[in-house]
């Protein structure tokens, strides 16, 4: 019964299968691996024309550098809006060359190092130690590699909370729960059926998402596939339990929707779906670490990118399971059939 | 008095309150009821009278604030599982799952019960064979209600509870439903119907309890209740101006009441052919003009108006 209800409801199909897929594709394209962008250098033209020529000779033909000759006012404006990475004031009379840039912007920092290196060598600097460069691009450290496990976790959370919580609240508001309560139907079996069908659907979601990610972007799965599936299943169950907890008393879909949003928004932002939670201030870290989605993402990433085994990831697994157990226990205790 | 064990349903002093303090709602306020096995019993009253709350307590869906409730001689606290196998329920405004077919819905309900009719039999009983593979959301209102009754019959219940089974249906669907219910009556099932349609109560029910503000204000067969009005017929007159009520108490008129819409009087009479000429004569005598005159049989609606001064449907 639950299966039929699922596939016949077009909106559920979209949100469970389509949305994570589209998101992965879109973000993967946006953050795809590209050859390094050229550095954009602005050279102030207000004075020092002789030095300007020297700079143009040194850098003008390099593909890695985009040169723009602008007045100081224009150059500073473009620097502030990020169109230009670095501003160089040429030598004029007794003054030195001067760089103007924002050291907190990674592109500007790189630009400063690169440009100065090029100019110094063009002016004749000799490096005492000879080095050679080897380039290697291995999947695992790219943004898309970070993102896919995060999206998987996010998808598991969303379909658990919405797929179970929303559906139950809707059944309650349509009095269907009440109708079923008047039958001899076993109540625990009813709730269990939601959990089981979540697991069932997962068998479809998981290969789809991971398959796509692997084929399109080469996202690796270094660890055991079996472990990965087991963890995904655990995650689905835990969030199904949390969805059920949200729906224990909610009288209608608006209330439960509000509750689910309240729970999932902080996790969407702070649990490491789109970026690492370590970017948040230290004082928040303990709280973030303990969130169920953070735990799930840590485990997924550990398996996929680090090839870690389940014993290495014991801590987040325990956290995740604890959330699940508590959510279920509370849901069973608090559930209202009216 | 027969012992409680013969009765299908017993309520003694049933009270159900919601909320507290200023927001206290006395949905049911001291209700007594006894329904015999095999009878079709009606709870007749306007919206908000406490009918639905009473039925939900009897169905085991709500706990009473106080009072005693026995169903088939058992109590809900001790024998809930046993009772659920033996009752069938159709709630007010049930919406079943929209994207399941009729057959799938029935299969679900049939699966709950240890014994009962087959799906084919159920479909036949409610005349939904053609709609076997239709999705619930594509059914008409009448068909949805019939499906709800089929679900209620899924376990071959000893008691059938129907809360407002024909509300919102067009007249034809309503008649179809009544046919269906009459067939169930013939099968000796105990049926409890709650309704605010007096016609429904009159046609289907062996006995009726008139309910208002959470209490039973009258109880008996429809004929008994109407007879208490003092005459089985009603004459309604509309005049061009008011008259004193006592003036209209002429031969064979047992009671006079004023209706809300100006100069309109409702007379309960024993014999119409005697009352009408007497009334007309009195009206002329008083110098008034007759605008409108209707004669009809008394109904349970009149019973309700006589008891409360209000209509069943306000």
Short description:
The complex is a heterodimer of chains A (338) and B (314). Chain A is mainly alpha-helical and 338 residues long. Chain A is 64% helix and 6% strand.
How many alpha or pi helices of chain A? 13
**Radius of gyration of chain A from CA coordinates:** 28 Å
Strand content of chain B is 25-35%
Summed up, the domain count of chain A is 2
- Main-sheet strand order of chain B equals 5-6-7-3-8-9
Query: What's the CATH H-level homologous superfamily of the largest domain in chain B?
Result: P-loop containing nucleotide triphosphate hydrolases
The SS-based structural class of chain B is: alpha/beta
- Shape designation of chain B: elongated
Poorly predicted tracts of residues of chain A: 3-11
Helix content of chain B: 25-40%
Oligomer: heterodimer
Strand content of chain A: 5-15%
How far apart the termini of chain B lie comes to: 37 Å
Shape designation of chain A: elongated
CATH architecture verdict of the largest domain in chain B: 3-Layer(aba) Sandwich
Side by side, the strands of the main sheet of chain A go 2-1-3-4
Order of helices and strands of chain A: HHEHEHEEHHHHHHHHH
Could you give the topology of this structure?
The complex is a heterodimer of chains A (338) and B (314).
Chain A (H helix, E strand, L loop, with lengths): L1 H7 L1 H21 L8 E6 L4 H11 L5 E6 L1 H9 L5 E4 L8 E3 L5 H17 L20 H31 L2 H6 L5 H31 L7 H22 L6 H18 L14 H6 L1 H15 L7 H21 L4
Parallel strand pairs in A: 1-2, 1-3
Antiparallel strand pairs in A: 3-4
Helix pairs in contact in A: 2-6, 2-8, 6-8, 6-9, 6-10, 6-12, 8-9, 9-12, 9-13, 12-13
Chain B lengths: L6 E12 L6 E12 L3 E5 L6 H8 L7 E6 L4 H9 L2 E4 L11 H9 L8 H7 L15 H12 L6 E5 L7 H16 L3 E6 L2 H7 L2 E6 L2 E6 L1 H6 L5 E7 L13 E6 L5 E6 L2 H14 L4 E8 L2 H9 L6
Parallel strand pairs in B: 3-7, 3-8, 5-6, 6-7
Antiparallel strand pairs in B: 1-2, 1-4, 8-9, 10-12, 10-13, 11-12
């Amino acid at each position: 019964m639950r299966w039929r209800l699922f596939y016949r409801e077009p909106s559920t199909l979209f949100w469970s299968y389509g949305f994570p897929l589209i998101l992965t594709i879109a973000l993967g394209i946006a953050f795809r691996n590209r050859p390094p962008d050229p550095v954009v250098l602005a050279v102030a033209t207000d004075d020092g024309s002789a030095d300007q020529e020297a700079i143009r000779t040194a850098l003008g033909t390099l593909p890695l550098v985009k040169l723009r000759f602008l007045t100081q006012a224009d150059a500073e404006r473009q620097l502030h809006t990020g169109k230009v990475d670095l501003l160089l004031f040429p030598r004029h009379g007794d003054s030195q060359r001067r760089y103007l840039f924002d050291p907190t912007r990674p592109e500007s920092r790189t630009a400063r190092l690169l440009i100065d290196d090029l100019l110094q060598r063009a002016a004749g600097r000799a490096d005492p130690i000879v080095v050679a460069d080897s380039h290697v691009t291995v999947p695992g450290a790219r943004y898309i590699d970070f993102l896919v496990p995060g999206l998987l976790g996010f998808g598991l959370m969303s379909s658990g909370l919405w797929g179970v919580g929303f559906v139950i609240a809707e059944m309650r508001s349509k009095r269907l729960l009440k109708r079923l309560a008047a039958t001899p139907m076993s109540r625990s079996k009813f709730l269990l059926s939601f959990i089981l069908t979540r697991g069932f659907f997962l068998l479809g979601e998981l290969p789809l998402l991971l398959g796509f990610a692997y084929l399109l972007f080469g996202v690796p799965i270094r660890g055991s596939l079996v472990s990965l599936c087991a963890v995904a299943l655990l995650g689905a169950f835990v969030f199904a339990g949390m969805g059920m907890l949200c729906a224990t008393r909610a009288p209608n879909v608006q209330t439960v929707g509000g509750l689910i949003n309240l729970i999932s928004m902080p996790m969407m932002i702070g649990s490491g779906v789109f970026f690492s939670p370590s970017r948040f201030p230290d004082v928040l870290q303990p709280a973030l670490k303990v969130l169920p989605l953070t735990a799930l993402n840590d485990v997924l990433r550990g398996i996929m990118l680090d090839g870690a085994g389940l014993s290495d990831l014991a801590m987040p697994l325990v956290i995740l399971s604890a959330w699940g157990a508590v959510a279920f226990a509370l849901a069973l205790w608090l559930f209202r059939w009216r | 008095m027969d012992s409680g064990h013969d009765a299908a349903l017993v309520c003694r002093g049933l009270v159900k309150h919601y909320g507290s303090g200023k927001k206290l709602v006395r949905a049911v306020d001291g209700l007594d009821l006894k329904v015999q096995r095999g009878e079709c019993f009606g709870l007749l009253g306007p919206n908000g009278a406490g009918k639905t709350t009473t039925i939900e307590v009897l169905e085991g869906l709500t706990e009473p604030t106080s009072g005693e409730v026995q169903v088939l001689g058992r109590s809900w606290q001790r024998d809930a599982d046993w009772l659920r196998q033996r009752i069938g329920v159709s709630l007010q405004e049930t919406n079943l799952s929209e994207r399941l077919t009729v057959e799938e819905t029935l299969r679900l309900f049939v699966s709950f019960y240890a014994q009962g009719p087959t799906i084919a039999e159920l479909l036949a009983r409610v005349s939904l064979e053609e709609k076997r593979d239709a999705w619930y959301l594509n059914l008409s209102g009448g068909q949805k209600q019939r499906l709800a009754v089929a679900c209620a019959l899924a376990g071959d219940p000893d008691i059938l509870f129907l809360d407002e089974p024909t509300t919102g249906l067009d007249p034809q669907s309503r008649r179809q439903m009544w046919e269906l219910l009459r067939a169930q009556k013939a099968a000796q099932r105990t049926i409890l119907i709650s309704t605010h349609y007096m016609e429904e109560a009159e046609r289907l029910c062996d006995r009726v309890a008139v309910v208002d503000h959470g209490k039973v204000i009258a109880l008996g067969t429809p004929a008994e209740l109407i007879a208490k009005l003092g005459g089985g017929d009603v004459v309604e007159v509309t005049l061009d101006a008011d008259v004193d009520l006592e003036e209209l108490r002429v031969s064979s008129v047992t009671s006079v009441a004023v209706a809300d819409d100006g100069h309109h009087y409702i007379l309960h009479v024993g014999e119409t052919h005697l009352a009408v000429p007497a009334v007309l004569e009195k009206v002329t005598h008083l110098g008034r003009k007759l605008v409108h005159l209707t004669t009809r049989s008394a109904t349970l609606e009149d019973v309700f108006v006589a008891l409360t001064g209000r209509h069943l449907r306000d």
